[in-house]
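A quick aside before the break. I want you to see a complete sequence-to-structure record at least once, exactly as it would be stored in a machine-readable document. Don't worry about memorizing anything.
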Amino acid sequence: MISKIIWIAFGVITLDQITKQLAKQFIFYGPGQIDLIGDWLKFTYTENPGIAFGLELAGPMFITIFALIATIGIFYYLYKTKRDNIYYILAFGLIIGGAIGNLIDRFLYGQVIDFIHFDLYKGYIFGKYIALWPIFNIADSAITIGVAIMLIWYQHIFEETPASEPNLQEQQHKPS
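That is the input. The structure line, written in tokens, reads:
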């Protein structure tokens, strides 16, 4: 079970790191932005020193240590629970992979590389400039999808599997 989670996490980490390096190479050192679907979907290179959605609640070192402790805590939880259902494996594989993908950035660059940009709305509301969707990356997507799986299939992920009942035929053939 843990090995399946690790394989999913490894796939997320690999895809995340490859796409971040491609973004750095072709967007940052290139035009800075690549439009994919009009002005709605584009690749825009940015570096995020904060946490989700660019929030800066504490310094980069605190965020890195917190993320590392949280990741270790999730691994400990996985080690102790040992559930073996697809929802559990997929959710935790995606979350662990995304967390490690962003941790790698924090260790290497001190911040996270983001580049996927949905520009659903940008403009002024009550005199303040608003962009409705933050720029994100594959790791962020994996974490979000993993959490969504947890929320949608919560009972399947966290249900206790009943201990298997002994087979009646085995009980009948046992010597007394």
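Two observations worth writing down. The CA atoms of residues 122 and 128 lie 10 Å apart. The chain has six helices and five strands. We'll return to this after the break.
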